[in-house]
Amino acid sequence: MKWMCSVILTLLLCTDVLHARKIGPRSPYKHIGVAVGSIRNRYPYPVTDACFHSQMGYQSPIRVYARLRAYGIRSIANGHDYDLTIHGCYEFGSDSSGMTTYAGLGLETMIRIQGDDRSQATSGVQPMVVMGIRADHGRLYLNFPLWTKFYSNGISISAVPEFGYPLNKKFDVYLRPELSWLSFYNGSGHEWRYDMLIGCYYIFE
Amino acid sequence: MSVTASSYLSNMTFKAPLSSWFVTALLFLLLTSCGKLPTPEPNQSFDHFTGDFEDSSLVKFHGLIPHPENAVLVNDNVRRGNYAVKFLLRPGDITNNGNRVELGVHNCAKYGTEVYYGWSFMIDTSWSDTHYCLISQWQNLPNYQQGEEWNNTFPAPPPLALVYVDGALKVQWNEKVVNENVQTIAERPISKGVWYDVIFRIYWSDQGDGYVEAWLNDVPMIDNSDHRFTGCTLYNRAGNYFKFGLYRGSDTDEYAPLIAWGDELRIGSTYEEVRP
After folding, report:
1. Rounded to two decimals, what is the model's pTM?
2. B60 in reach of chain A (CB within 8 A)
3. Which residue of B has its CA nearest to A109?
4. Interface predicted TM-score of the whole assembly (ipTM), two decimals
5. Secondary structure class of A146 (helix, strand, coil)
């Protein structure tokens, strides 16, 4: 937990450095990706993500993002537990240093179909607000959105930084340490949760 | 070249104005939120429970019973009242991936609650096995709200268990799923063929403020000044659930059948409420 907070704070403090890096014009490319993770809070637990993101058009400032998160080893096909996250973002463009900021809205759908009578999990849909930055540092890039989700009884704020490295013109690899703060509106408590995922993007036009 | 955050914002080039639909959509989404935060709220109510078998039935329990003869009601050897349960475990009595016969109680070990547990047990005089055997345990659960389920849960010892091994009763604690490090936090010698009463007072937490107190025949088991062990008692906030009976792990060794009795299980909020 502490090292995760340290990483995020360091990233925020390094914003000035990241500013100075030049990034290219808005990309016309689309990405599809898959990520797997196995470290969740104090124990390993398998998580699988399949995601897509793109902009609506080469000149459009609107980007769309969709992610299907499944839990478990056979998770994509088990039909029990999924999080489907879809959002659209408005890209504010690059400043002179090449850093891009964006903000948007979306929905997350939690699907919990448990056959276990010990489970009290419920499915639900909640809106989310997204704000983020993207910056390049040589061949490395950082995409750092904050996802704020509004539940009926609380709120969660997730830092979802993605450290990417292009292997070639078609594939990127990335590391995504996720840190979430979940808090009840009534002040009865909060939880910190983190996941660590490693993934790969396939890039196409 | 370094650029400050303020100059960055002032230099930013906006490609298009923020349109009114954006604000409208935001308000709409905020008003329509309907999912629940995927983490348990602390200090929820838990199920108070009485399992004294006086209704001559096991239906109150979630049974992990391989064969009917593994858990039978008896009236000739009871701690109190007319009925008790007799557990029998043999090699090959396998259910839920373990050599076990156990009676489970759900919704009694929730995150952020303090709960008392009391029950009676007796080890049969024929018991000759020197392998460990869990005679009760508080088993962790997958965090269902966060999408987890049993099939993919990392196998680990329960966070807390009461173990009989070679004439000794041990309270065993494990802090983490990974870096497994089972510790014995209390130990007492016990005799076969004698009923014992145990009571536990536990605060369930995945932080360091969890605690355990235990009594054997009303005498504290934990040997420190406040008779309390402090530490994480949950792996996650999904909570634990309680089981009692016999659990010998997943070994397939040959051994002489194990017999034990149980009676007077109660789960509640005070010592007196659960005292056998």
Report:
1. 0.83
2. no
3. B35
4. 0.79
5. strand
